[in-house]
Specification:
The complex is a heterodimer.
Chain A lengths: L4 E12 L2 E13 L4 E5 L6 H8 L9 E8 L2 E2 L5 H7 L4 E4 L3 H4 L6 H12 L4 H14 L5 H4 L9 H13 L5 E5 L7 H18 L2 E5 L3 H7 L2 E6 L2 E7 H6 L4 H9 L43 H4 L4 E5 L2 E4 L4 H17 L2
Parallel strand pairs in A: 3-8, 3-9, 6-7, 7-8
Antiparallel strand pairs in A: 1-2, 1-4, 4-5, 9-10, 10-12, 11-12
Chain B lengths: L21 E14 L4 E16 L4 E5 L6 H8 L7 E6 L2 E2 L5 H8 L2 E4 L13 H12 L6 H12 L16 H13 L5 E5 L7 H18 L2 E5 L3 H7 L2 E6 L2 E7 H6 L4 H9 L41 H5 L5 E4 L2 E3 L25
Parallel strand pairs in B: 3-8, 3-9, 6-7, 7-8
Antiparallel strand pairs in B: 1-2, 1-4, 4-5, 9-10, 10-12, 11-12
Helix pairs in contact in B: 3-4, 3-5, 4-5, 5-6
The chains are: A alpha/beta, B alpha/beta.
The structure holds adenosine-5'-triphosphate (2 copies), iron/sulfur cluster (2 copies) and magnesium ion (2 copies).
Pfam families (chain B): ABC_tran, oligo_HPY
GO molecular function (chain B): ATP binding; ATP hydrolysis activity
Keywords (chain B): ATP-binding, Nucleotide-binding, Transport
Chain lengths: ~350, ~350
């Protein structure tokens, strides 16, 4: 049986004056109800475009979309814009990075939740309002009965984010996509929001996609992790695969770049050299080769031939020309010892 | 002589004896809040409300705390981009608290600020050469082989190609732009650099490049840093000592090791335990301190201990008596009546050495 959400070779390209922007260029993953997928990658790697693509928000906007998105047995890439719009709210919903841009400034928070709720539920305004107050209370807004009549700008950043989560969850969506839901927040508030998302997901048994550049946030929530680079999935596996036996040189680079509180501080960080690729002139061959310390190990192939995303073991997928044995050897003997020594 | 030059690496541990390079006492900045046609003052935002610390030559002091706690304001006060409303700022033994802009000008060379946003802090219409060379022109500094050569040396120093001289900021990535900003900062060979969130707008791989660069430059040029950041992992990596701010106050200040291994202020403990750890197997067993609510407004900060509205250890005394910033272990100061991890932890409220508590 195919999973609840099944994305196959998704491509989203934007024709622009400067050329074709290959924002998403072959992304494949599956996600079951009750499970959480983390998508990580640097700025511009295509994380948001992927998520907006699943919600059908690029449709009719001049984007070239190919591949397949199956949600609960229904294919969405080929479906009409109206049909996909009808699924938003109840079947799938999104939490955006910037709550102000997702909320209407002239309507109260309560009215916005009421409206969203009534699209999918034939209830009176009074019932919907009660539900809105309920939801605001559930996400930890103090005095929800009073705050329901506040405008978004009257909330602090953390409260706004919670209000948006309340809005996104008001119709019990089966798939919830959270795009950098805590990036703008302080760590103590971030911790509250992450707890909240974990609890609500458990309660509603929804499928959750969390998009972030913070490997810590991903590790807190995810069952599976997808690492994106230059519009492509370059590594995919369980959280254990990605954190304890990563096989892609880019993933190694991400882990080496990050100072960690849970380990003795290293003398120096191990950054990835260079900067992220342009999505218009993606480097030929392996898109990571200009920054990869192991280019020479795969000879000319790194520059001429695009590596395929191949399974290394038990659903762990890696896009690299090196053999799995060679990668594991590098990780165990060269990378891991450096990252983990005090 | 004035040409920026690379000095041999001096990797001596920061000496904390002698005169501090920067010394701050009871520093205050209250922004007036006005109302109505006549701009009547109705209150004040107590952005920085009586903080004291020293920064010694060659060290890095990290300044952490949540949004709005007054970190940037502190940075702007000590570099005198803002004038304090109270307290004192001493730089190399000179009182600069209310010094006129004219008299400050020569000192500006010695104190520089790096800003958070590599996008907006560079003028998009100027070339890299003009941007990095501007400090020479503004300060009227003569360079041995001309400004261009000096700028190209600086670009090389921060890891950029000297041939980028005629390019514009938009042609560079975020990390490269931050390097341009750093090159500009270094132009006049400052003694003290205040870096306000120097890496928070950058991707993690680029963050690491810039953090390493700041460390290399410190060793090569014998720089002193105050690094302002909200990321506790970055601050631990880069700092020798760390000060934690909450609502305009320093609540704890200590050597890096001591602060992270034995945090004493409940707020510091909460901050540290809130940082997500990139270790999925560890997540189940981790004990967490969860604060409720957001940081209160600095317009109406809670009385006495400002943290009492969110603190799980708060008692009556916390609402009535402000805890002094007291040295409870060597070099480790904390402002709390009931500190955690304090050596020989007193069951009774910790008090300042000579301030009696009359609760
Ligand atoms: N409508 C569009 N037209 C053209 N290019 C676009 C469009 N939308 C996005 N892009 C480009 O696609 C690339 C991927 O963007 P995306 O927003 O998915 O990045 P991201 O991984 O979410 O990055 P960030 O971490 O900065 O949010 C970027 O280079 C972006 O400029
Ligand atoms: N010019 C100003 N006028 C009035 N209030 C100000 C001014 N500048 C800052 N503030 C207020 O002072 C407080 C401290 O601001 P500051 O920018 O120093 O915080 P911060 O710790 O740097 O926060 P962040 O992490 O968000 O950058 C905030 O409440 C802010 O709104
Ligand atoms: S294919 Fe070659 S260049 Fe690409 S990641 Fe693997 S080793 Fe590096
Ligand atoms: S003084 Fe009281 S309220 Fe303040 S941090 Fe200490 S225990 Fe908490
Ligand atoms: Mg994005
Ligand atoms: Mg700031």
């Amino acid at each position: 049986m195919s999973p609840f959400l099944d994305v196959k070779d998704l491509k989203i390209h934007f024709p622009t004056d400067d050329g074709l922007v290959r924002s998403v260029d072959g992304v494949t993953f599956g996600l079951e109800r009750g499970k959480t997928l983390g998508i990580v990658g640097e700025s511009g790697s295509g994380k948001s475009v992927t998520s907006l693509g699943i919600l059908g928000l690029h449709k009719g906007r001049g984007a070239n979309i190919s591949g397949e998105i199956w949600l609960d047995g229904e294919e969405l890439v080929g479906a009409s814009q109206e049909h996909v719009r009808g699924l938003r709210g109840k079947k799938m919903a999104m939490i955006f990075q910037d709550p102000l841009s997702a909320m209407h400034p002239f309507y109260t928070v309560g009215d916005q939740i009421v409206e969203a709720y009534r699209i999918h539920n034939k209830v009176t305004k009074a019932v919907a309002r009660k539900h809105a107050i309920d939801m605001l209370g559930r996400v930890g807004i103090p005095e929800p009965g009073r705050r329901v009549d506040s405008y978004p700008h009257e909330f602090s950043g953390g409260m706004r984010q919670r209000a948006m989560i309340a809005m996104a969850l008001s119709c019990d969506p089966e798939l919830l996509i959270a795009d950098e839901p805590t990036t703008a927040l302080d760590v103590t508030v971030q911790a509250q929001i992450l707890d909240l998302m974990r609890d609500l997901q458990r309660e509603f048994d929804s499928a959750l996609i969390i998009i972030t550049h913070d490997l810590g946030v991903v590790a807190e929530l995810s069952d599976d992790i997808l690492v994106m680079y230059g519009g492509k999935c370059i590594e995919y596996g369980s959280a254990d695969d990605i954190f304890y036996r990563p096989e892609h040189p880019y993933t190694w680079g991400l882990l080496g770049s990050m100072p960690r509180l849970d380990r003795e501080p290293t003398e120096r960080l191990l950054p990835i050299k260079g900067s992220p690729p342009s999505l218009i002139n993606v480097p030929p061959g392996c898109a990571f080769h200009p920054r990869c310390p192991y280019t020479e190990r795969t000879g000319d192939k790194a520059r001429t031939e695009a590596p395929a995303l191949a399974e290394t073991e038990g659903g762990h997928l890696v896009r690299c020309h090196m053999s799995p044995a060679e990668r594991r050897d590098l990780w165990e003997n060269e990378i891991k010892p450096v990252l983990e020594t005090p | 002589m004035t040409e920026p030059q690379t000095q041999p690496a001096t990797q001596t541990a920061p000496a904390r004896q002698g005169e501090p390079l920067l010394s701050v006492r009871d520093l205050e900045k209250h922004f007036p809040v006005t109302k109505g046609l006549f701009q009547r003052q109705v209150g004040a935002v107590k952005a920085v409300d009586g903080i004291s610390f020293d920064v010694y030559k060659g060290e890095t002091l990290g300044l952490v705390g949540e949004s709005g706690c007054g970190k940037s304001t502190t940075g702007r006060l000590v570099t005198r981009l803002l004038e304090p409303t109270g307290g004192q700022v001493m730089f190399e033994g000179q009182d600069i608290t209310h010094m006129s802009q004219g008299r400050l000008r020569p000192l500006r060379r010695d104190m520089q600020m790096i800003f958070q946003d590599p996008y907006s802090s560079l003028n998009p219409r100027h070339t890299v050469g003009a941007i990095v060379g501007a400090p020479f022109r503004i300060q009227g500094v003569q360079t041995e082989n001309g400004v261009k050569k000096a700028v190209q040396d600086l670009l090389e120093l921060v890891g950029l190609n000297p041939e980028h001289y005629n390019r514009y900021p938009h042609e560079f990535s975020g990390g490269q732009r931050q390097r341009i900003g750093i090159a500009r900062t270094l132009a006049l060979k400052p003694k003290l650099i205040i870096a306000d969130e120097p890496v928070s707008a950058l991707d993690v791989s680029i963050q690491a490049q810039v953090v390493n660069l700041l460390e290399d430059l410190q060793n090569e040029l014998d720089l002193t840093y105050v690094v302002i950041a909200h990321d506790l992992s970055v601050v631990r990596h880069i700092s020798d000592r760390v000060a934690v701010m909450y609502l305009g106050k320093i609540v704890e200040i200590a050597e890096r090791k001591s602060l992270y291994a034995t945090p004493m202020h409940p707020y510091t403990n909460a901050l540290l335990s809130a940082v997500p750890v990139p270790d999925p197997r560890g997540r189940a067993g981790r004990e967490r301190i969860r604060l409720t609510g957001d940081v209160p407004s600095p317009l109406n900060p809670p009385p006495a201990c400002r943290f009492h509205t969110r603190c799980w250890k708060a008692q009556e005394i916390c609402k009535k008596v402000e805890p002094p910033l007291a040295e409870l272990a060597s070099g480790h100061r904390v402002a709390c009546h009931f500190p955690e991890n304090a050596p020989g932890a007193p069951e009774a409220p910790a008090t300042g050495k000579d301030e009696p508590v009359n609760a």
